[in-house]
């Protein structure tokens, strides 16, 4: 692959490009709908101005949202929509989200809601956004009862993954993306570590694009993208989001392996492979946060958006990942004990 890679999310007349590479920010202009006369940029204070694209003669307004999960709320959505109205945006205009996963989630949901849906283009500046949040059209915000429980499916008109921006990321933000990247090793049962970072990101995008193309609204295989996330979301809620998403996913991947092993779905060697990827390839060595009881985690896992009649996990098997419901509380506790013992 060259240093700039284009992947396509194939959704018929709603298909769009995802551009991955260094110095690709200028490609954003090619993704703006021809009907647009106004651009609303949604971003955060910490995003370097160098990664805010320019749009020539189009009228541009900038809308800054707060940092942290406490700002990923319906209150923020209302504020953005009111600001869009004050800026004169109509259905033919466009929202451009510039930032990480929180920005693309919030801006995407605002785009889906304002005028019952206006175009959105994502400029992903974090690894997490590039390989996960900006691609696939899932948008959402949190409520007190759970993470991402309110949202919409709203596909972007295009996604630009400007890899130069990764050089500006704090180490913890990179770890967040690496936690999500680790899951792709298990979704496709491939070792991605031999690829360059550009190619590895592009491969993750391709994997997600293929899954989204086959199952846009998570009626089947798209749920596999939530591998490791059932415990991860519960950890985020239980710690009031003091643990970062990717850190929680890294723990969640290891927990899912222990749970699958307890249920006789995989052998101990496959559990070891999870540790080799999470700890070895990506260096994500995180302990289970102190002071969290199994009962609390079970309650929070029951509120996960995958749960319908019971706590639901994505679990590994000899033939690949599968959605598994009806896991008993006793089995969940035993696997938690295994995880704590292994992590030390």
From TrEMBL:
<dbReference type="InterPro" id="IPR056179">
    <property type="entry name" value="DHQS_C"/>
</dbReference>
<dbReference type="GO" id="GO:0046872">
    <property type="term" value="F:metal ion binding"/>
</dbReference>
<keyword id="KW-0479">Metal-binding</keyword>
<feature type="domain" description="3-dehydroquinate synthase N-terminal">
    <location>
        <begin position="64"/>
        <end position="175"/>
    </location>
</feature>
<dbReference type="GO" id="GO:0003856">
    <property type="term" value="F:3-dehydroquinate synthase activity"/>
</dbReference>
<dbReference type="Pfam" id="PF24621">
    <property type="entry name" value="DHQS_C"/>
</dbReference>
<dbReference type="InterPro" id="IPR050071">
    <property type="entry name" value="Dehydroquinate_synthase"/>
</dbReference>
<keyword id="KW-0520">NAD</keyword>
<protein>
    <submittedName>
        <fullName>Unannotated protein</fullName>
    </submittedName>
</protein>
<dbReference type="Pfam" id="PF01761">
    <property type="entry name" value="DHQ_synthase"/>
</dbReference>
<dbReference type="InterPro" id="IPR030960">
    <property type="entry name" value="DHQS/DOIS_N"/>
</dbReference>
<feature type="domain" description="3-dehydroquinate synthase C-terminal">
    <location>
        <begin position="196"/>
        <end position="307"/>
    </location>
</feature>
């Amino acid at each position: 692959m060259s240093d700039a890679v284009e992947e396509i999310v194939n959704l018929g007349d709603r298909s769009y490009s995802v551009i991955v590479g260094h110095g690709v920010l200028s490609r954003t202009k090619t993704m703006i709908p021809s009907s647009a006369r106004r651009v609303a940029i949604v971003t955060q204070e910490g995003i370097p101005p160098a990664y805010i694209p320019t749009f020539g003669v189009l009228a541009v307004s900038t809308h800054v949202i707060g940092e942290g999960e406490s700002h990923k709320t319906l209150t923020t959505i209302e504020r953005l929509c009111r600001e869009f109205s004050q800026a004169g945006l109509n259905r033919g205009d466009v929202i451009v989200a510039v930032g990480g996963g929180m920005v693309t989630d919030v801006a995407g949901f605002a785009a889906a809601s304002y005028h019952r849906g206006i175009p959105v283009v994502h400029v992903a500046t974090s690894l997490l956004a590039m390989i996960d949040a900006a691609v696939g059209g899932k948008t959402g915000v949190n409520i007190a009862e759970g993470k991402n429980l309110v949202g919409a499916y709203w596909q972007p008109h295009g996604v630009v993954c400007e890899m130069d921006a990764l050089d500006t990321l704090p180490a913890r933000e990179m770890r967040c993306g690496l936690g999500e990247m680790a899951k792709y090793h298990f979704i496709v049962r491939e070792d991605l570590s031999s690829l360059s970072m550009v190619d590895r990101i592009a491969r993750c995008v391709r994997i997600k694009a293929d899954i989204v193309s086959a199952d846009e609204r998570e009626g089947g295989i798209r749920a596999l993208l939530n591998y490791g996330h059932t415990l991860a979301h519960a950890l985020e809620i239980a710690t009031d989001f003091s643990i970062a998403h990717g850190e929680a996913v890294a723990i969640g991947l290891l927990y899912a392996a222990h749970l699958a092993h307890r249920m006789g779905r995989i052998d101990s060697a496959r559990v070891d492979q999870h540790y080799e990827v999470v700890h070895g390839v990506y260096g994500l060595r995180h302990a289970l946060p102190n002071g969290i009881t199994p009962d609390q985690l079970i309650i929070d896992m029951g509120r996960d958006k995958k749960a319908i009649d019971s706590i639901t996990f994505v679990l590994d098997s000899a033939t690949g990942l599968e959605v598994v419901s009806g896991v008993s509380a006793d089995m969940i506790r035993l696997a938690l004990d295994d995880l704590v013992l292994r992590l030390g």
